[in-house]
Specification:
Elements: E1 11-16, H1 23-37, E2 41-47, E3 50-58, E4 63-74, E5 77-85, H2 92-104, E6 112-113, H3 114-124
Antiparallel strand pairs: 1-5, 1-6, 2-3, 3-4, 4-5
Helix pairs in contact: 1-2
Length: 125
């Protein structure tokens, strides 16, 4: 399991994976969603056993991470974790719902978030 401290997470969003959709499909959709929600500078990579997205503001004179999220995937479920945010910028919900759009279509089930998301994740991970 990835080395991510879920107790320190700023935000968490959990959903089931649609039957027939693989973990690789979810990771690809999540990575594409990360690229789509932030138009400045985005880095998506694999670290600590998870897919991570870092969103940077780059003014040319100053460059800083404004949000960092991670994706955890287990059989039949996935969890978007917000690890860092600056000035309240939380892109986790946008990434999570765009991933659902890509993997479920229009009729995706409502995700759980916060403590409920962590309970759902730990119950099935």
């Amino acid at each position: 399991m990835p080395a991510i401290d879920l107790d320190a997470a700023i935000g968490t969003y959990w959903s089931e994976v649609r039957v027939g959709v693989t973990g690789a499909d979810v990771a690809a959709a999540w990575s594409a969603a990360a690229q789509a929600v932030w138009k400045d500078e985005v880095h998506v990579d694999q670290r600590d056993g998870a897919t991570r997205a870092s969103f940077l503001a780059n003014s040319g004179q100053a460059r800083m991470t404004v949000c960092e999220c991670a994706l955890l995937v287990a059989p039949a479920q996935f969890l978007t974790v917000v690890l860092e945010q600056v000035l309240g910028l939380n892109l986790g919900w946008a990434i999570h719902t765009r991933t659902l759009d890509a993997t479920w279509g229009e009729d995706w089930p409502n995700p759980s978030f916060g403590e409920r998301a962590l309970r759902d994740w730990s119950g099935g991970a």
